[in-house]
């Protein structure tokens, strides 16, 4: 059997409404079909996902496993893939037609690169494009200096599951993924990948990310159980990553910088779920502000000073409720009058019609 150039791993769970479009987007790639293999790993779906995936016949291998989360799907599926390059796709997203050809071309031009990511288009549940998120330019990234590690930390979201492809040997050295990472397992993989070799980020939108009622982004807004699950996973990620990164010789000061935003995220979830002191909330908000923005207007600095003052006047959980109420109110629209801050991350976000 001919060894494929590219293997595609589609991880899925209860995506009966979307899995056909995900698979079809891979089959429709402008990349030679003879150089491609596709594996769908179903993490124990209880709907018709498996039946739908099975209709694609011999071009698509379908593998069902007991429900165990994203890490267990990766640990099962990745060792079965034979391609030199491994690209990943979530079962509720889909790719632009030129995705694989552009990614393979990037790997061919950069033989030392171990991972390639790119921008995205955002869609609603029906698949209508509602926005885009792109890096400001193409980037070559590594974490061998503190400044480089900070830049990667700012751009790491562009290496999430549906946006990333790896060289097989890089991915193999990152396994196994701790199976406590039922979500966020892709962050474990992309962190260990850049610890081994430089990464390339393309400023092209090569996949479609779908907002829908059952994906993590939407669940966290309304579901306390999902919020607690994410906190447990982020805490586990922070527990495992430092030692895992150090084994590849990353300097200690770079490890600290690389994990800065993860530490802030863990602390934010902890305070939101378990509570804490007003001083802890103040320090978190201050650190997050300094990390997120590179420049602000005088008006915005005054606005933020008032916000920081509020953290000292109430328990953290009250402050989070106030934040949520503010974000959902018309007042949020008026804040732009004081000036919008400049993000530290070199990212361009646009909404359709903007």
Helix content percent band: 40-55%
Strand content: 15-25%
CATH superfamily assignment of the domain at 6-218? Answer: Spore Coat Polysaccharide Biosynthesis Protein SpsA, Chain A
Distance between the termini: 50 Å
Q: What is the ordering of alpha helices and beta strands?
A: EHEHEHEEHEEEHEHHEHHHHHEHHHEE
- Unreliable segments (pLDDT under 50, ≥5 consecutive)? none
Report the biggest beta sheet as strand number plus sense, adding barrel if it closes.
Answer: 11 strands, mixed
CATH fold-type name of the domain at 6-218:
Spore Coat Polysaccharide Biosynthesis Protein SpsA, Chain A
Assigned CATH architecture of the domain at 6-218:
Alpha-Beta Complex
CATH class of the domain at 6-218: Alpha Beta
Radius of gyration: 21 Å
Overall number of strands:
13
Overall body shape: globular
Note the main attributes of this structure.
15 helices; Spore Coat Polysaccharide Biosynthesis Protein SpsA, Chain A; 13 strands; two-stranded antiparallel ribbon; 354 residues
